[in-house]
Amino acid sequence: MSGCRPTMPLIVLAAGAALSAPVPASAGAEGGPRMPSVPGKVPGEPSRPRNPCRSKDHPEIAERLGARIRAALAGRAGTVSVAVADHGRGLRCALAADRRYDSASVVKATVLGALLRRAADEHRAPTAAERSLAHAMITRSDNRAASTLWRSLGRERLARFAERAGMSRTVLGPGGYWGLTQITAHDQLELLARFTRHNDLLPDRARAYALRLLREVVPAQGWGTPAGCPHGVTAHVKNGWLPRHGRFWRVHSIGAFEGPGRSYTIVVLTRDTPSMAYGVTTIERVARAVHRTLNPGMRAAIGDDAAGAAPGGVPAASDGSVPPGR
After folding, report:
1. Which positions ≥6 away from 84 have C-beta within 8 Å?
2. pLDDT (tens digit, 9 = 90+) per residue, 139-163?
3. Alpha-carbon distance 306 to 8, whole Å?
4. N or C: which end of the chain has fewer CB within 10 A?
5. Between helices 185-196 and 204-215, what is the axis angle to 10°?
6. How far apart are CA 324 and CA 209, in angstroms?
7. Is-contact 227 287, C-beta < 8 A?
8. C-alpha distance from residue 231 to each of 4, 214, 224, 289 (Å)
9. Are strands 262-273 and 79-86 parallel, antiparallel or unpaired?
10. What angle do CA 156, 159, 162 make, to 5 degrees?
């Protein structure tokens, strides 16, 4: 995505899929600097819950953003986790950010990171074959390309990359079922930081290549966290969408946003939503709240009057990251 643009209608992308039961989250240490995660909304929650956002230098913005995220999620069905980081403002948000979810196609961004780390370990650039597979996997969410790279990299290398990236609660999917990798919003925020900020894990040239692929995602897959992104800010996005037993959905979006004097990341993970469109709408309500708060006075590429409207188009199917019957 060369810049933020209106969300495209959802289309049928792959055959349906069924998922195994989710792995429950449990308490544990996290890698990298982080703030305590505020639990998600539950029945009987106090009317003034603790703000999920913190910033020592910009407490007013953090207070406003936390309130807007809460308002965006008010009354929404399903389970949601949110994580936001604005390093320039020293701002971080964490709403149920330790909860685990089936990754669906979002894990392809992790596969890309591991691929680039392997090339760096071998003191070379990615080969033409690797670049072709990576391009298909990220920009079109090609599952065959993802499976080929998953096998080529191997579980040990993938797990080592996740550990070094600070993704301490990420658990690789069993066997070749990469779509069943267990992810958290916090860990996905850590991954995006490796793509957007100078670090020892991914060389700057590798980071630039990864970001280029993430901004070249095909228009039909440009929904989610880019919603409400203002003109002049470049969006990088990877999404995942899977039904469970043909009924309840996991719909996720991770995004990195860069513009003059600004760089921030957004992760929204959802599960048990009644449809893909419903999950997308939940994500985009949060995204609009974040973009509006972090870019005051800037005109959104997607009008705020569209907030809360379910995406149109034909009914969407699974992203195909897990075979039917699994």
Report:
1. 53, 65, 69, 91, 92, 93, 189, 264, 265, 266, 267, 290
2. 999 999 999 999 999 999 999 999 9
3. 13
4. C
5. 120
6. 33
7. yes
8. 6, 18, 16, 16
9. antiparallel
10. 150
